[in-house]
Design a protein that fits this description.
The chain has about 170 residues and is mainly α. It contains 6 helices and no strands.
Length: about 170
């Protein structure tokens, strides 16, 4: 248990340091996030190629090439990656909002109570998507500042968890 306490404390300290660094350097944090996502896409692309090799699904070649090319571009062009990240998040929020709105109409047609809550959620998601895309730089920096706050709070709570562990 004593080792677990130190594990929590060290993890908490690392999270706090990451949060402070993200607060101090939000633009660099955006670029770093893009770099790691790019590395993940390259790994994903290579994995698709192995899927093509073993299972002979031709669409895996296309998916592998798309992931590989996107990953390489994200690593080699961090400025473009940082600029496009809010648009990707905005597109995801927009598609999720539209999906929720469509589902809410279906629930309303089926006379399921509370369908309108999902409708409001969908509308809110669409509004946030439009706000993100309207000001991508501010959205990216805001996203990193929220992430920094989350890392610092999580780090503090993880340290508290470590001290709460009894011998």
């Amino acid at each position: 248990m004593k080792n677990m306490r130190w594990n929590f404390c060290i993890t908490g300290i690392i999270l706090i340091i990451l949060g402070v660094l993200t607060f101090r350097y939000p633009v660099e944090a955006i670029m770093t996030a893009g770099f790691f996502i790019g590395c993940g896409l390259i790994a994903s692309g290579l994995n698709y190629f192995s899927g093509w090799y073993f299972f002979k699904f031709k669409r895996f070649i296309v998916l592998g090439l798309l992931d590989l090319i996107t990953g390489i571009i994200m690593i080699l062009q961090p400025g473009i990656t940082g600029f496009l990240m809010p648009f990707v998040i905005g597109a995801w929020l927009l598609s999720t909002g539209i999906t929720r709105m469509c589902a809410s109409f279906w629930l309303g047609g089926a006379e399921i109570p509370g369908w309108w809550i999902m409708l409001l959620n969908g509308i809110a998601l669409i509004i946030f998507a439009l706000l993100i895309c309207a000001s991508p730089l501010m959205s990216s920096i805001s996203l990193m500042l929220v992430l920094a706050c989350e890392l610092i709070i999580e780090g503090i709570l993880t340290i508290v968890e470590g001290f709460a562990v009894k011998n």
